[in-house]
From TrEMBL:
InterPro entries: AAA+_ATPase, ABC_transporter-like_ATP-bd, ABC_transporter-like_CS, P-loop_NTPase. Residues 4-226 form the ABC transporter domain. Belongs to the ABC transporter superfamily. Keywords: ATP-binding, Nucleotide-binding, Transport. One of its GO terms (molecular function) is ATP binding. This is ABC-2 type transport system ATP-binding protein. SMART domains: AAA. The keyword Nucleotide-binding applies. PANTHER family: ABC TRANSPORTER, ATP-BINDING PROTEIN. PROSITE patterns: ABC_TRANSPORTER_1, ABC_TRANSPORTER_2.
Length: 296
């Protein structure tokens, strides 16, 4: 049973479609990263899942059931537009949040705040952006939820706090939790996510494991030869998308999938060196967003 399952989920604001026919599945015990440019539908998706807004049409199931007050207690939510009560200290704010839940765990909140170097004795209006974000993270995990839904969780965090949060996230999942989060920080998604989905114009255009996306992405190999070799030699090789003459003795190939046949072809000539540019998640993201622009 999936922790999150949506069926043709749509959200419209007047004539504007913010989300279109989203079929999303998040499995137990995984970290799922949701990517997309501004306005792609990421925040709309997360708000729909926690019942802050209602869908125009389509279905949502959490833990196999429709949203209910009982299910809300199993979810930790960090909104992208976090609002705090400025006259409360961090501890008072967490106490207030805990009183609204069926299973508060003050000990967990204290432990996580310590790990993130957050002073719970200070009033929230005295906190920096980064510390306000830390407090939002702590409240999302304070009751040890079964599912954490996080909108840009590391926004404003310094590198040390980000690293500690990523470590905590993996511990949380190893202990049985499930995470769905959105992010603009592609390196973060690549580092912590098991699977990733890319939203563009309200549609889920690609979804796969990070490793699979990278393995099937277009990469660049540059071959340096002892003598001139024509780029056309590689144009018909399986997997080669493009072959360009960089100089008389260098050829750059853009290739997807297995590169064995390309390397064997290059080895027929006096090969001096091979340089490979392995794609990262940013390359993949740019590839899909540019591809959509080309279609337009």
């Amino acid at each position: 049973m999936n922790v999150i399952s949506t069926q043709r989920l749509c959200k419209s604001y007047g004539r504007t479609e913010a989300l279109r026919d989203l079929d999303l599945e998040v499995r137990p015990g995984e970290v799922y990263g949701l990517l997309g440019p501004n306005g792609a539908g990421k925040t709309t998706t997360l708000r729909l899942l926690v019942d802050v807004i209602r869908p125009t049409r389509g279905g949502i199931a959490l833990f196999g059931s429709p949203m209910s007050p009982r299910l809300r207690g199993r979810i930790g939510y960090l909104p992208g537009d976090l609002v705090l009560y400025d006259r409360l200290t961090g501890a008072e704010y967490l106490g207030f949040c805990g009183a609204l839940r069926d299973r508060p765990d003050p000990g967990e909140a204290t432990r996580l705040a310590k790990r993130l170097d957050l002073d719970l004795g200070r009033r929230t209006d005295e906190l920096s952006k980064g510390n306000r974000q830390k407090l939002g993270i702590v409240q999302a995990f304070a009751h040890r939820p079964d599912l954490a839904i996080l909108d840009e969780p590391t926004s404003g965090l310094d590198p040390l706090a980000q690293r500690e949060f990523h470590t905590y996230l993996r511990e949380y999942v190893d202990d049985g939790g499930t995470v769905l989060f959105s992010s603009h920080v592609l390196s973060e998604v690549e580092h912590v996510a098991d699977r990733v989905g890319i939203l563009l114009d309200g549609r889920l255009v690609v979804e796969d494991a990070v490793a699979s996306l990278k393995a099937n992405a277009v990469r660049e190999l540059t071959f340096a030869f002892a003598e001139e070799v024509a780029a056309a030699t590689f144009s018909g090789v399986p997997g080669v998308r493009e072959a360009v003459q960089v100089s008389g003795t260098e050829v750059r190939c853009r290739v997807s999938g297995a590169v064995g046949e390309l390397v064997r072809t290059a080895a027929r000539f006096p090969l001096v060196n091979v340089t490979s540019h392995e794609p990262d998640l940013e390359d993949i993201f740019v590839h899909y967003t540019e591809g959509l622009s080309d279609v337009r």
